[in-house]
Amino acid sequence: MSGAAKRPGAPASGARRPAVRPALCALFALLVFFAAAASGCAASGGPASPDAGGRADHRPAADGGGRVPEDGGAGESGGKAAEPPAGQPAPVVAEARLVAVGDIMMHLPQTRSGYDPGTGTYSFHHFFEEVKPLLSAGDWVIGNLETPLADGDRRGYTGYPEFNAPPELADALKEAGFNILTTANNHALDRRETGVLRTLENLRERGLVAVGTHASPEEAEMVTIVEKNGITLALLAYTYGTNGIPIPEGKPYLVNLIDEEKMAADIGKARAAGADVIAVALHFGNEYETMPNAEQKRLARSLLEKGADIILGSHPHVLQPYEIADVGREDGSRGQGIILYSMGNFISNQDRHSHDGKPTDIGAIFEIGIQKQMPGGPVSFTGVRATPTYVHKYSENGVTKHRVLPLEAVLLERHDALLTDKDYARLEGDLAETNAHLAAFLPESPALAGASAAP
Predict the structure, then answer these.
(1) pTM score above 0.85
(2) What are phi and psi of 413, to 5 degrees?
(3) pLDDT mean over 402-427
(4) Measured between alpha carbons, how far is 204 from 404 in angstroms, rounded to an integer?
(5) Are strands 92-104 and 140-145 parallel, antiparallel or unpaired?
(6) Tens digits of per-residue pLDDT, 55-91?
(7) Is the pLDDT of residue 382 over 90?
(8) Helices (DSSP H) in 162-259: which residue ranges?
(9) d(Cα 281, Cα 159) in Å, to the nearest integer?
(10) Where are the domains of the chain?
(11) Rounded to an integer, what distance in angstroms lies between the CA atom of residue 309 and that of residue 216?
């Protein structure tokens, strides 16, 4: 093709032959046309416009929605999109990842482990150093903050049964990659109204979004919507109760309680506000039970039918299997939703020895891939991945320390100086057991064929 393109403009080597030149020009024009058409088929169009902190992608939309690959990882969407007509750009697809973990607790041994007596300050960054790459890879990174951060409280820092942790915990969470924390749980009122308000202040001062508790009635009426890469996520959060501590009279806005009528109304408000995906965080279920109870299943399904897309469960302190549910929605449509019944403990001082063998030291980092054909949709899920984690307790200078380890990576690398051969052997069993347990509700080849967020 390059030779033909050059010849019409090249100087003649002998006598001019006018009859040949028009023919060559015509041939050149045809070649240029076909080259442009071929180039147009491969092009992805102009650059997308990601938001300030996100990414955009130009891959063709999946045919019929996304799927969970057979290895359980969050991979490329299932199916291959049809090629666009010649000369037309491929559709632009925006993508984002929701990363979620379970309970972030602060028992007194954890608080002590972050204290520096030389400076009188706290630091908890060591909790999350090993899992920071997994967390920071998410666009929305969500955890359940199950402790007030009510610094200045006259009772000081405490653990169970009424928690209060240093606000430096929020610094460590942000540095690890978290940007959203749910605060509606049974420990929300451990330091009463002052604790709720001061926790919100400490989180917001650090640029963290808090969901489920509020400083005013006006805040309680607002729906939290966070946009990443052109995809909007609405996040709602509710708890079954507050450990018998009454919500102050006339101030029900302080903590969101599970109330199906209110939750349905909030889901409707979120969709009306333009949310592409609606995630509902529920603090529910029975502590230390490794399978969801009937009420968890009923309520989760009910919220999907009302228009929610993802359920983020916490409170049992152990992992429960997750589910990809096919539901008929109240608007007459059908769709699929993702139910994480319990994401377990992410960080705590609990372990099997102190809880009758219950795996309270095992959690998971869940990643849900979301994509949206731009502009305007549709929106679909591209996969679910669960990465099991382990809270490792070790001694340093006579102080018990805590860190969250990603089990698979630790077992593959096997060069952690703080782990023994006996530790590795035990963790191998933990990983196999956890992977099998998490997949208990999934088909043999889990798939999100056609899985879409509600329109």
Answers:
(1) no
(2) -80, -45
(3) 97
(4) 25
(5) parallel
(6) 222 222 222 222 222 233 333 333 334 456 677 677 7
(7) yes
(8) 168-176, 192-205, 217-221
(9) 24
(10) 94-438
(11) 27
